[in-house]
């Protein structure tokens, strides 16, 4: 009894392994190979109708002993069997891999692109890709020549902000005459960020906060100083930021030197959650902050304050992208954010 109980207890695990074995396995680099074990084929409605017509032709030929009827019936049956093999071969050994993904705002369509490679001399005609769990997503169709590659683009609607993952994708084909449908399922680890939808008629962004008089005088003095000032230059040290390097002097002398003075301070514009009207809900606040972030120019550094998240003022595309990511993922990430700003972005 104990041995039998152990066998029965292991049955669910065996069933799970069998279900997992029916899925295409990902190779190195996230590529999925559509091999013989993971291709499924069934007749379509047209194929079933074709089989019914063949059966009727066969019965008629048997009843009336029509030799030409037998010949026509068996010829059409052979064509149907050839269509089944051609449909199966159309997807056999295709390689599917994750491609580029676009970042969008809520309410737009995120474009997930899957790369399809044909690694033999056979042309692949009418390859279809769709998301079974999202029937509203349009089917992508692709035709490949031999030893060629292409992209299947799936436009998935992004209804809410946050991280959007691509569900399981069905790769199918009805080539050549639509009598049979061959398909396989592909699980691609693809996701993208959905930013909040910017407010349509947002008020102007907050005013720019400029440095105080003392800091302004110091910044003006630093800006007015030349790269050639001897008292501001020293030998370059490993780890000095790029914006501290005196490029002109280094080019003339052939030696790397850095400035010792503080860089000029630019005005800052803070986008603060707490200064918004108290009656706004969380999504409305994020939409307005997103609109302000997109409308803010490069005349000032931009800082972002959210409950539990603060990004110090900075400039550049990488900092703006970090702010959008903070808006998209709040409140999942409430730890202190630090934008990954390139050395040239804060210049």
TrEMBL record:
Membrane listed as a keyword = yes
Region feature (Disordered): 1-29, 199-230
Q: Which residues cross the membrane?
A: 39-60, 66-88
Compositional bias (Low complexity) spans?
Answer: 217-227
Q: Which UniProt keywords apply?
A: Membrane, Transmembrane, Transmembrane helix
State the source organism's domain of life: Bacteria
Q: What is this protein called?
A: DUF58 domain-containing protein
